[in-house]
Amino acid sequence: MSVDVVVIGAGVQGSSVALRLAEAGRKVVVLERAVPGAEASSAAGGILSPGVEAVEPGPFYALCRASLARYPAFAREVEALSGMSVALRTLGTLEVALDDDHAKILAARAEKILGHGLPVEVLDDAAVRRLEPAISTEARGALFFADEASLDPRALARATYIAAARAGATFITGQVRRIVIEGGRATGVEHESGRIEAGAVVLAAGSWSLLVEGHGLPAGAVRPVRGQIAVMDTRPPLLARVVFSGHGYVVPRPDGRILCGSTMEEVGFEKAVTAGGLRHVLGVAIGIAPALERAPVVETWSNFRPASPDGEPILGPGTVPGLLYATGHTRNGILLAPITADAIAAAILGRPPPVDLAPFSPARLAGILRKAP
Ligand SMILES: Cc1cc2nc3c(=O)[nH]c(=O)nc-3n(C[C@H](O)[C@H](O)[C@H](O)COP(=O)(O)OP(=O)(O)OC[C@H]3O[C@@H](n4cnc5c(N)ncnc54)[C@H](O)[C@@H]3O)c2cc1C
Fold first, then answer.
1. Ligand 1, atom 16: nearest CA belongs to which residue?
2. Taking the mean position of all CA atoms in its chain, how far away is CA 61?
């Protein structure tokens, strides 16, 4: 079999990239070893928050903002093609201070963000509780990122896969063993039941990216960081907006479910929900909204963030011609899916990049990894 592009992995990155390339008329095959979208992309909280996650203005903040700006159109497109809703909610994000130290950190951040002319509102505790009456009376003000959003990642992962398939991408079940490099360039992949020749290969295998032979990345470029989530049920819905404290977050769904996250654990590929993990995420949630203490816990899960050494994604070409990366999205792979899709498609189609990818090139990694203790 010979195609224009083969994509390794059908998480949100692989499916979104395949969607864009199929729309551009390219023959695309996505190889997924298990179920499309069922790993990290279905386990996420679904927070789309450059303000909290990127912390300070810079290239990563700009990348996150560029992706957030694309979301309404991206969600509409995926919804129209798939016939599914991804439950995009644009109610904004709160980062609430529950002690004086965190209040000081937030005040300093607000000054920096506002100094760059970027959007954030500083709320006192009365204003916080006007927005979200269930928030703890311990609150000492908050930052409010009013134009931010959340969505249902499980729905997004499934809908993006369906959308890409409807746009013409072919999904094949199969574990990719090796990226084939011939004459110094990537010419295809070997998977469990054969070989596929391709003009370009996109590595979008998330936390498992370094297990694919021929990946061309330095050791430690991507590692799994486990995150646990517990879901509570509130009736009527106790909260509407995503709320971060200094230690974690809650993500309310419109039906009253509230996702409580998350842990950042270096435990390799051990998928487990632990007593300690639950204590942490439930404690964070109850700290934010004490009434959650009485809410039933209805679901729990864990999965792995594909973590890069600096927490920023690995995007675009590296040193092997024909091999491109859409991996290492760490905590923000849901947020960054639309810009990843546009950037990788542009690189393959020879179109101008939507953003400068240099800060996210794999070339930066060797330096960071050398400095690591
Ligand atoms: C608990 C938790 C909470 C999170 N919350 C948020 C959030 O609120 N907002 C946000 O933006 N991000 C969040 N993230 C991060 C986000 O989920 C990830 O960054 C994103 O899903 C990564 O997408 P992906 O497509 O690279 O990875 P994945 O979804 O893991 O997809 C990779 C795919 O590659 C397949 N694969 C691997 N190896 C092979 C192979 N050799 N051959 C074939 N297929 C292969 C896998 O089976 C998998 O389906 C969270 C993550 C976790 C774990």
1. 333
2. 14
- Closest CA relative to residue 328, chosen from 349, 314, 309: 314
Cα(354)–Cα(345) distance, rounded to whole angstroms? 10
Q: How far is the CA of 38 from the centre of ligand 1 (A)?
A: 8
Say whether pLDDT at 366 is over 90.
no
- Condensed to tens digits (0 to 9), the pLDDT of residues 314-334 reads 999 999 999 999 999 999 999
* Statement: residue 55 has pLDDT above 90: no
Residue 206 CA, ligand 1 centroid: distance in Å: 5
Using the mean position of ligand 1's atoms as its centre, give its distance from the Cα of residue 33 in Å. Answer: 13
Those residues with Cβ within 8 angstroms of residue 111's Cβ, 6 or more apart along the chain or in another chain: none
Position 372 pLDDT exceeds 80: no
Residues contacting 36, CB < 8 A, separation 6+ = 10, 11, 15, 30, 157, 158, 161, 171
Nearest residue to 239 (alpha-carbon basis) of 140, 129, 153:
129
